[in-house]
Write a structure and sequence with these properties.
The chain has 214 residues and is of the alpha+beta class. It is 52% helix and 23% strand. Strand 6 and strand 7 form a beta hairpin. It starts with a helix and ends with a strand.
Length: 214
């Protein structure tokens, strides 16, 4: 099934709303509790919960702005340190994932940065019980190679998302969670590159993207 631009925009909006609903809802609940609470200890606890929810919301917004939006300025290249900060902000909230950053290039094209972040989003969701994530990027003879490797006790990747990453289309029932996969495939294809997903060993999954020109 091919997704139209309007359908993709709808998927993306649904995805963002879904991911932001929980922390923003927690903010609202915390404010309601704070308004009715008079005990100093409980009020302090409410403030801690509000601060946690605000931090999670801000981290997700920063990540999504770079992954899906027009962040990074008007230049063609984006500093990889911006991507690292966004990823650490998102993954840092998940205490079950250990992050290893081994990106060797200081900058990447905007499209590559978006692919990197969206692959991280997909890969992190495949670590159902947590585990380790290694993020790599290097310039190999003029070809930019991006790799996101995950290791965990249980890895789950929706077949629709896997097919969309490789082929650019999923099943007849398209879900908002596939929005990241559609973006990855479109950006890699536009560059004339290629995308791979494979499992070299049990408990290991590798997402690799190659851009033909920098």
């Amino acid at each position: 099934m091919t997704v139209s631009p309007v359908d993709f925009a709808s998927l993306l909006c649904s995805r963002l709303c879904h991911d932001l609903l929980s922390p923003i809802g927690a903010l609202n609940n915390g404010l309601e509790l704070l308004a009715d609470e008079t005990d100093p200890t409980m009020r302090a606890r409410c403030m801690e919960l509000l601060a946690d929810s605000a931090r999670v919301s801000a981290s997700k917004l920063k990540f999504f702005r770079l992954a899906f939006g027009a962040a990074g300025g008007f230049g063609e290249e984006v500093a990889t340190r911006e991507a690292r900060a966004a990823i650490e902000g998102l993954i840092g909230e998940n205490k079950r994932i250990e992050l290893d950053w081994v990106v060797e290039v200081p900058t990447m094209p905007k499209a590559a940065i978006k692919v990197l972040l969206n692959l991280v989003l997909i890969a992190s969701e495949s670590l159902v019980r947590g585990g380790r994530m290694e993020i790599g990027g290097e310039d190999n003879a003029g070809h930019l190679e991006i790799v996101v490797k995950v290791e965990g006790a249980r890895l789950v990747l929706d077949p629709e998302i896997r097919r969309t990453l490789i082929e650019g289309q999923g099943s007849d029932e398209v879900t908002p969670r596939a929005a990241a996969a559609y973006m990855v495939h479109a950006l890699v294809t536009e560059s004339g590159g290629s995308m791979q997903v494979f499992e070299p060993d049990e408990g290991v999954m590798i997402f690799g993207a190659v851009f033909n020109a920098r």
